[in-house]
Design a protein that fits this description.
The complex is a heterodimer of chains A (345) and B (205). By secondary structure, chain A is an all-alpha fold. Chain A contains 15 helices and no strands. In chain B, a hairpin with a 2-residue loop joins strand 1 and strand 2. Chain B has a two-stranded antiparallel ribbon. Classes of the chains: A mainly alpha (345), B mainly alpha (205). Chains A and B meet through helix 5, helix 8, helix 9, helix 13 and helix 14 of A and helix 1, helix 2 and helix 3 of B.
């Protein structure tokens, strides 16, 4: 892994932070990824899908690529199955290619946190444990069930234990179910940042810090929209200091752009707030957040070989799968094309 | 009616009482019919914009929810909505409108509708749920008014049928029977008079 330099501040880069240097151990894997990157759906295909007159036509525009359905089949369930298969495949490929097991475990921990969130919500509110958990994490769901039943959190790895303890503590303070999510989200962000620092990956560190910032921007706007006071929803650890987001909760909409002017996110905030005010919708801000993250991932193009290339491919592929699902869902439910374009364009 | 009647003065008196009662009933039922119609029109006028508003809110909820669900990972959607925090209970009271028991719905809603954290969920989910929350109140009001309208419409139909039966069947039939009895009694009276005159003639001769 390329060694991390001391942490950059938000004022030290104009658009995207640094992605780190080359790691020639990943030469073969990077070459394979570069080939696969050429198969990612182009903007033209996505626009064709969005502008298709109906669901069948949108599915038909995928026929030439890897998302092609079996002949004659154009049911939404089939599409959903194909998309889930593709997502599982790309995650398997990622695990195969990545030489650093810690990075694979780090990305798998996303599923552990998702499983833990669902399991804790059900356990703490005395609901049945259920069977709809992801099998792609580091910990099997049965083990999570066993640990929560026994209330012996020592059997969890440290990040899961910390998340569980803080979530339980948060929940019992005022029996607010959202405290579970806030605690898990913060521990997840801390865990990712700490692991990225431990394996000394400047790319992962910057990636996770950007993700925290983008989450905070969305959270700030959502808190303002719902007129909610849940400031615990803001996550620490991003490039932008928490105080700026707290200030953003107090200010009027017109002052938000100015507040974030010195950060690389000012365009997201400006355009997102304008769209939110005019359309009462988060489509634009979510689209701009995705666009910014994808822009950062694309900047790994300057790296010839390295783990950054593989991580970027995994995240871009997951984003592509989500976009395809979004367009097809919208087409299936006869939603307005403008809404789709606002979200994906 | 006529075939079963015995043409007696007692029957005539009884029928006259019945026709007076039926006319009074007819008048009262007509008034009831007019009042129910008035109430029904008033409710129908309220329902129309309310229904439009509810449909628009629900369609927005549906649209937003679809977008949110599609842009989130399926496991995050499951986790976010697995444990709802909004509690909803409803009781029903009955009020009387023109002797029709119409329901009045009393709702008890507590808790916040947004029941998840922000990191793994879409803002469109918030918009969908807040829109659904707004639609709740309107939806209950609409349900109440539509039920009232339905009950009043049934009552109106029944009342109109009663008024029509009284107006076009019962009262005319009683009048006809009265006329029949009256004719019969008059005929009997004339028979009697002519018989007496005949007897008088015979005695005089």
């Amino acid at each position: 892994m390329p060694k991390a330099r001391p942490e950059q501040s938000v004022f030290e880069f104009l658009t995207y932070p640094q992605v780190g240097g080359d790691d020639w151990a990943y030469m073969s894997q990077s070459a394979q990824v570069r080939t696969l990157e050429m198969q990612l759906l182009s903007r033209t295909v996505l626009m064709d899908m969005a502008n298709a007159p109906d669901f069948s036509a949108a599915v038909a525009s995928l026929a030439a690529g890897e998302y092609a359905l079996p002949q004659g089949s154009a049911r939404f369930e089939d599409v959903q199955t194909v998309l889930l298969e593709k997502r599982a495949n790309v995650r398997e490929l990622f695990a195969d290619w990545m030489l650093d097991a810690a990075v694979v475990a780090l990305f798998k921990s996303r599923h552990d946190f998702a499983n833990l969130r669902l399991a804790l919500r059900r356990t703490l509110t005395d609901r049945p444990f259920g069977a709809d958990y992801s099998e792609e994490g580091n910990m099997p769901p049965e083990l999570i069930e066993h640990v929560l039943e026994e209330e012996n959190y020592d059997l969890f790895p440290p990040y899961m234990r910390r998340a569980t303890e803080q979530a339980v503590l948060g929940y019992y303070q005022n029996k607010d179910i959202r405290q579970i999510d806030y605690a898990i989200d913060q521990v997840e962000a801390d865990h990712k940042l700490a692991e990225a620092a431990r394996i000394e990956s400047v790319f992962l560190l910057n990636l996770f810090r950007i993700q925290v910032d983008l989450t905070n921007i969305r959270t700030m706007l959502r808190l303002r929209f719902a007129d909610a006071q849940h400031r615990q929803g803001l996550l620490a650890g991003g490039f932008v200091e928490l105080e700026r987001f707290r200030q953003g909760l107090e200010l009027g909409s017109e002052a938000l752009g100015q507040l974030f002017f010195a950060t690389p996110y000012h365009r997201i905030v400006d355009a997102g707030v304008a769209y939110l005010t005019s359309s009462q919708s988060f489509l634009k801000v979510e689209q701009l957040c995705d666009e910014y993250l994808i822009g950062f991932l694309r900047s790994t193009g300057q790296v010839t070989a390295g783990p950054q290339v593989i991580v970027a491919y995994l995240l871009m592929k997951e984003h592509e799968i989500r976009t395809v699902r979004l367009i097809l869902t919208a087409k299936k439910n006869l939603l307005d094309t403008k809404l789709i374009l606002d979200r994906v364009a | 009616m006529i075939s079963n009647v015995s043409a007696t003065r007692m029957a005539l008196l009884s029928l006259r009482k019945r026709v007076a009662l039926a006319s009074r009933g007819h008048r009262l039922l007509s008034e009831k019919r007019d009042e129910i119609s008035r109430q029904l029109i008033k409710i129908a006028r309220d329902i129309q914009p309310l229904r439009r508003q509810v449909e628009s809110e629900l369609s927005q909820t549906f649209r937003r929810f679809m977008l949110a669900r599609a842009s989130m990972e399926p496991e995050h959607v499951t986790a976010a909505l697995a444990v709802p925090t909004k509690k909803f209970s409803m009781a029903m009271e009955f009020a009387s409108v023109m002797n029709v028991k119409v329901p009045h719905l009393l709702k008890d809603i507590e808790g916040e509708i947004i029941c998840y954290g922000y990191a793994t969920t879409s803002g469109e989910m918030d918009v969908a749920l807040l829109s659904l929350e707004r639609a709740f109140d309107l939806l209950i009001e609409l349900a109440e008014k539509e039920k009232q309208a339905r009950l009043l419409a049934v009552e109106l139909q029944m009342t109109r049928r009663r008024v029509n039966v009284l107006e076009h069947v019962v009262i005319p039939e009683i009048h006809e029977t009265i006329r029949y009895i009256h004719d019969k009694l008059s005929e009997a009276e004339r028979d009697n008079t002519s018989r007496l005159m005949k007897i008088t003639d015979i005695i005089r001769k």
